[in-house]
Amino acid sequence: MTEPLIEAEQVSEIAFGFMASKALFVALHLDLFTHIAAHTDTGAHANAEALASTSGVSIERVTTIMTALVASGLIEGGPDEYRNSPAAESFLVRGARNDFGDYLRYQIDRQMFPFMNQLEAVVTDSLTEDHTDSYAKWMADPDEARLYTESQHAGSLGPGRTLARLVDLSNAEKLLDVAGGSGGLATRLCEAYPALNVTILDFPNVVQLATEKTAHLADRIDVLGGDALVTKWPGPVDAVLMSYLWSGVPGSAIGDLAAKAFDVLTPGGQIIVHDFMVDDDRQGPRLAALWQLQHLAFIPKAISLTPGVVKACLAAAGFVDLREDVLIPGMTRVVFGRTPDAD
């Protein structure tokens, strides 16, 4: 349980948190973490002068940015020799095995960050027509759809490996990935289960990129352009995956999504719901709660999901043997279930 705040400085940490976020995003756009890694690999000192030269930014500005990163714990050292923190080295250097920098520099900075400016308008019902208020409206813009889907791909491949370990699809031949985006999760599942074939259902501007990203699995992954809320789902299938979908639609729609999944699944077929979920007592985790707030900023009728809410909805649709697990620690969980066996 999170301890209640006491000091003014603790309030300021929250209020000023966006400044640290922007320092991180600017550093990613300038490839500063990658430059530091390159200097370290060659035995050279990644000092302020070297970073200014490689990034094309004045030494004064680089020093200010790097000081903020040092104070935030992302960078170690000082102007004479900067070093990536272990987290920065693992996750923010281009080409690192666990690199998800593109997800942060593009989707989070370029798209999600600006959406928070309309949160007040959402909660006060004062959105205007020029605001984005649904994924359907947002993904209708080809450029926005490509940027979102491209960056999301970088953030899905790692969790996809975890999902493949948590679920047993050894007896499944067909999986429907509803709102499957770029196919990051589908790719990892196909790699883990050679007999599995996947259909990705997502908006037309999204599945266009999914076709490119999964070209090496074209014989096993196909796509269907449409809106998960209105498009007829193909079936029968042995498994249905819905990742980040329930938090991205009006709360009133999740019952229909569960019912659609039940209808296309074979007897004993598996349901997999992955999303941002807070604990049932709604005390955290903090990152999951913040992501739910982010979704509210452009999905005015989105609801706060918990494992209990998801399980209750699935049970109402007829699913049995419901269980939950953590997928991304502190952020997302996955609920598994199945349809009853045939009589």
Description:
This protein has 343 residues and is an alpha/beta fold. It has two domains: 91 residues, Orthogonal Bundle (Arc Repressor Mutant, subunit A), CATH 1.10.10; 230 residues, Vaccinia Virus protein VP39 (Rossmann fold). Helix content is 47%, strand content 17%. It contains 15 helices and nine strands. The strands form two sheets. It has a seven-stranded mixed sheet, sandwiched between helices. A two-stranded antiparallel sheet has the order 1-2. β4, α12 and β5 form a beta-alpha-beta unit. α2 crosses α5, α2 crosses α7 and α4 crosses α5. The N and C termini lie far apart (45 Å).
Strand order of the largest sheet: 5-4-3-6-7-9-8
| Mean pLDDT metric | 94
Record field, number of beta strands: 9
- Which CATH class of the largest domain is shown? Alpha Beta
